[in-house]
Amino acid sequence: MPATPTDPQTAPSAREVTTAAADALRRSAAALLLDVREPSEREVVHIPGSLHIPLGQLHQLAGLFLPDPARPIVAFCAVGVRSLRAASTLTAMGYADVVSMAGGIEAWQREGRDASGTDGLTPVQRQRYSRHLLIPEVGPGGQARLLASRVLLVGAGGLGSPAALYLAAAGVGTLGIVDFDVVDLSNLQRQVLHTTDRVGEPKVASAARTIGALNPDVRVVAHELLLGADNAAEVIAGYDVVIDGTDSFETRYTLNDAAVAAGIPVVHASVYRFEGQLTVFVPGGGPCYRCLYPSAPPPELAPNCSAVGVLGVVPGIMGLLQANEAIKLLLRVGTPLVGRLLLFDALDGEFRELEIRRDPACPVCAGVPGTPSAGASTAAAPLPASTRAPGA
Ligand SMILES: [Zn+2]
Predict the structure, then answer these.
(1) How far apart are CA 101 and CA 80, in angstroms?
(2) CA of 365 to the centre of ligand 1 (A)
(3) What are phi and psi of 268, to 5 degrees?
(4) What phi and psi, each to the nearest 5 degrees, are found at residue 343?
(5) I want to staple 132 with a disulfide (CB 3.0 to 4.6 A). Which of 138, 198, 220, 236 is the partner?
(6) 248 CA → ligand 1 middle, Å
């Protein structure tokens, strides 16, 4: 009985050729290159002109796709182990001239040989982002897009921490971080970018260290400052998406006005004790922050979380939803939360959604072209009590 490819006792004894020899055979059409990897691996990268039969299907499919037993075959896989088995199997099935390519397609790529479907990702990146590459909506092209993207996080606190961690893990290539504060012991209950030994350290420095350790693909741009009307336009310039993790109405208005002027989408969230809310402001595509809140409420109606408290996981959840919206915008997939205010109640474990509309009289975005605001006769949808309170 011929050796089966799944038999762990099989000692592969096939001949090997170098990648250079395999490449020469391919170019001269003297041999057929046979890819024996799994379909998901082949989708990431393949050698042009190669035939694909996964190792586990050789017995069933070889007769169909390899009708000429005399034709020379060079089998290859990722690193050259499975292809040894494939060569043994095919030889046992009667194929006269089968060899295995030593080092596999990983060696082939390291040497810069002709490969398709890589979109500029390195072998290490293909491994790091392999679960993204398997999703049709992301794939190598989407991952390359994420790596080329720039997201600005305003605030490295309760919302910015989880958002930054997951955007960094996802391979968003540039993360700008705006924060003027230092790490305080009372931050660590929710601001998971920072650690106990960094109390007293600037948050932007702490964030850069954490992100650098998580993913060296990510470049962190530290903006150690308080975002204000005098610097907002300069700070946000060049970013694709802004994540609003601020905790004051004043900073939100400043950020909103600069983002509308620059045409940059803002993913907004705020939290209050057990409640959170989330929406996406796309200039011209829906309401802006001033459409939602034409004026700041008096301070007694809008205490921040240092005054009223917040359950630590609530900004964690809302910050991750912000990261999710940002990635959707960057990849241009799904339906962004534009014109929709998502409300989360941690105690009930419930999400609700309110429609929000552009204010035709909005002093900031009324003149911005985009989706007509016809029918938006009211300035904003009725707001629940929780939406009056910011905090991060
Ligand atoms: Zn507006």
Answers:
(1) 6
(2) 4
(3) -105, 140
(4) -110, 135
(5) 138
(6) 18
Residues in contact with 73: Cβ distance below 8 Å, sequence separation at least 6, in sequence order: 31, 32, 34, 66, 87, 90, 95, 97, 98, 99
The band of 382, judged by pLDDT with boundaries at 50, 70 and 90, is: very low
- For residue range 321-330, list pLDDT tens digits in order: 999 999 999 9
CA of 191 to the centre of ligand 1 (A): 30
Phi, psi (rounded to 5 degrees) for 218: -95, 130
Do residues 64 and 116 touch, judged by C-beta distance below 8 A? no
Can you tell me the distance from the alpha carbon of 91 to that of 16, in angstroms, rounded to the nearest whole number?
Answer: 13
pLDDT tens readout for residues 296-323: 877 776 766 677 899 999 999 999 999 9
The β-bridge relationship of strands 51-52 and 73-76 is unpaired
3-class secondary-structure state, position 376: coil
Measure 279 CA to ligand 1 centroid, in angstroms. Answer: 13
- Whether the predicted pLDDT of 36 surpasses 80: yes
Kindly state the tokens that stand for 117.
């479907």
DSSP 10-68: -----EEE-HHHHHHHHHTTSSEEEE-S-HHHHHH-B-TT-EE--GGGHHHHHHHH---
Cβ(304)–Cβ(390) under 8 Å? yes
- Interatomic CA distance for residues 182 and 77, integer angstroms: 50
Place of tokens 């962190």: 220
Distance 285 CA to ligand 1 centre (A): 10
CB 104 within 8 A of CB 76: yes
Q: Which residues contact 80 (CB under 8 A, 6 or more apart)?
A: 16, 100, 101, 102, 103, 104, 107
How many other CB atoms sit within 10 Å of the CB of residue 15? Answer: 12
Catalytic residue among 77, 288, 291, 305: 305
Active site residue 305: yes
Reply yes or no on whether the pLDDT at 67 is more than 60: yes
- For ligand 1, the distance from its centroid to the CA atom of residue 362, given in whole angstroms, is 5
pLDDT at 392: 52
Q: Token pair for residue 329?
A: 């915008």
